[in-house]
Specification:
Helix content is about 25%, strand content about 25%. The protein is of the alpha/beta class. Strands 2-1-20-19-18 form a 5-stranded antiparallel beta sheet, sandwiched between helices. It has a 5-stranded mixed beta sheet with strand order 16-8-6-3-17, with helices on one face. Strands 4-5-7-15 form a 4-stranded mixed beta sheet, covered by helices on one side. Helix 4 runs antiparallel to helix 7, helix 7 runs parallel beside helix 11 and helix 8 packs across helix 9. The radius of gyration is 25 Å and the shape is globular.
Length: about 525
């Protein structure tokens, strides 16, 4: 299921990706190497000054641009623009969360979802309840659940006389947590899914409609009895397949807990369209999913699903083990998964909870800030909020972000973090940026996108193969042209990095990053 969401994750409000055809973006790619940032040693000829001048040309406010570039293993001059001003980083916040997780939890960290019973096996019947003890696994997919539930059938069990009891006590969360108020019109979008110990399959249902000679057919994966599709899509003769935006997906919630999803639009024969929606509370989604998988395998459940706590004397039946943390952070950073990053912050908190702490989000933030301070990184003004960057309140400065990336470069787990970042013009959220340029594959860059925010953070090489830390943030409304500034920043760093004399170093807004 996760791989099906990758194409959607690029289109979320938290990370919609680029507006590829904007004039500013095209301008970014049309300048030639000689016209990129030259070696002029005048104030206006400084590398950072050139970037600021370009931002001004395309109406990006000077105060809304922050940047830091630092050479790591070759010649070069550090460059800074508004480097100490806390900015909204958007999704580059995930670089901090995932790097912290590698060092605090360890790259071999796994999640374990365990299945217990308080009953006895009698023939092909489990006489009692089946308990599912969740651990906040960010990637407990339908495929993994199918495998572990299949083990129960493989044991010869085909009937459960009790209930399916979901135990989500692993996380400590207050009843009211900070809410992200999205500016879009779809409160059921996957990027808005909230973290939960009960999370399975990213809490998303995939709806599809296909047109053929019979008309149109609609279905969902997974299929839930309580979710009904009202397919009003009409079939047309063969023609160009319409964009997803040409269809209306309207969920209607009924008092009995059932949901009707009305789909409207026109679809040419041979075409299909789809949408991803999060419609159920995590405990309802997971309960319905596990129950349906069990029944689809021929199993019966006399009771129903409900939440509860696993008795201390219950015995273990089986367990589902997650991929390691290295695999998890690859999905988080390549595809900018908000809910997985938010789960990860809660896991850091749960694993490092102190006596009296009742909120794993706050415990996770405290743990990360203490870890940063142990590395002599100034955390003043830093606001982690939810660890995903899906926030109007998150704050990082360009210097803080650059320091974090410098520390990561020297970490034993540097390769694990870097391999999780999107490759320029090749994959993840950078797949369509700077294509058909010499930069293809020459940098690993996490991107950020929110209303009024564009950002990049990661590592890039220049044409002499010197590696650089690169951080850029644009906080400007509207910020659609911010991507052009950031792409030009990468382009110029590759062709004309700031090398020259000390006279060509940008003015610093504080002490240098060392």
């Amino acid at each position: 299921m996760l791989h099906l969401l990758r194409q959607f994750s690029i289109l979320s409000t938290a990370h919609l990706g680029a507006i590829w055809s904007t004039p500013a973006f095209l301008l970014c790619l049309t300048f030639t190497t000689p016209l990129a940032f030259g070696a002029d040693t005048s104030v206006t000829g400084k590398w950072s000054g050139k970037l600021q001048a370009y931002a001004n040309e395309i109406d990006v406010d000077a105060a809304g641009l922050a940047a830091a570039v630092i050479p790591l293993n070759g010649p070069g001059l550090e460059q800074y623009i508004n480097a100490d001003i806390p900015m909204n980083p958007g999704s580059i916040m995930k670089v901090l969360t995932t790097y912290a997780a590698l060092e605090i939890l360890g790259p071999d960290y796994h999640w374990e979802t365990r299945f217990f019973t308080d009953g006895q096996l009698v023939g092909n019947t489990l006489d009692g309840n089946l308990y599912v003890e969740f651990s906040g696994d960010p990637k407990l997919t339908i495929e993994r659940l199918w495998t572990v539930i299949g083990e129960l059938r493989g044991m010869g069990v085909s009937a459960i006389t009790g209930d399916l009891v979901l135990d989500g006590h692993y996380f400590r969360l207050p009843e009211r947590s900070p809410i992200f108020h999205d500016n879009g019109d779809n409160p059921h979008a996957p990027f808005l899914v909230k973290p939960s110990a009960y999370l399975t399959n990213l809490n998303v249902t995939h709806f599809e409609v296909r047109a053929d000679e019979r008309g149109t057919r609609a279905w969902s994966k997974p299929a839930f009895d309580r979710v009904v599709i009202d397919n009003r899509v009409t079939a047309m003769s063969e023609a160009r397949c319409p964009a997803r935006s040409q269809f209306e997906w309207t969920p209607q919630f009924h008092d009995n807990g059932h949901i009707t999803v009305k789909i409207e639009g026109k679809l040419a024969r041979g075409c299909r369209t789809s949408a991803y929606l999060s419609l159920l509370a995590p405990e309802d989604y997971s309960g319905a999913l596990i129950q349906s998988l069990w029944q689809n395998m021929g199993g019966t459940l006399a009771g129903t699903y409900r939440t509860g706590v696993t008795p201390p004397d219950a015995r273990l039946m089986m367990a589902a083990y997650s991929p390691d943390l290295v695999t998890i952070i690859r999905d988080i950073n390549k595809w900018s998964s908000n809910v997985m990053a938010r789960q990860l912050l809660l896991n850091i908190g749960a694993e490092n909870r102190q006596p009296g702490e009742l909120d794993d989000r706050l415990a996770g933030i405290r743990t990360i800030l203490e870890w940063l301070e142990s590395k002599n990184i100034n955390t003043a003004g830093m606001v982690i909020d939810n660890g995903a960057g899906l926030s109007r309140h998150g704050r990082l400065s360009a210097r803080q972000t650059a320091q974090i990336l410098q520390q990561a470069w020297n970490s034993p787990f540097a390769a694990d973090l870097m391999s999780s970042l999107p490759l320029i013009a090749m994959d993840g959220t950078m797949a369509r940026r700077l294509r058909n340029t010499a930069l293809t594959g020459e940098g690993r860059i996490k991107t950020g996108y929110l209303q009024g925010v564009r950002s990049i953070a990661g590592y890039s090489r220049d044409k002499s193969e010197t590696n650089w830390v690169v951080v850029g943030m644009v906080n400007h409304d509207p910020a659609w042209n911010g991507q052009a500034v950031l792409d030009r920043m990468l382009y110029s760093l590759y062709f004309t990095p700031p090398l020259g004399t000390a006279l060509s170093q940008a003015p610093d807004s504080g002490s240098s990053v060392r």
